[in-house]
Amino acid sequence: MTTSAAGQPLIPQPPPTVTALRQAVSQIAPAALPAFARELDQAADQSRQGSELGPLRRFVAQWSVYVYIQRQPDLARQLRHWEDVAESSDAGQVRQAASEIGKMLDDAHAALGIPIR
Length: 117
Description:
Blueprint: H1 18-28, H2 33-50, H3 54-70, H4 73-87, H5 91-112
């Protein structure tokens, strides 16, 4: 991941398009590109099979939230911390981690204007 001035996003939030999100992921989290490509293929296949755009819309929303968080080093660090807690803690700490992660995702959705379903 590239670095930024303290507290500043690494890059501006890209528009919610596959091309812009792919470019952003390649800049801030290149290791996530295989997952991006795999999930895009799945969403495209589901959209073709069902003749609807819902899977592609969900893909764009999910990756917009991912980029929103990953482009902010402090926020990304907090997310990784809570993910680690969720993986290696007792039930009480796992519940707290799930709550904190949920809040972070809700905040990202709200900041991007993406409805939470």
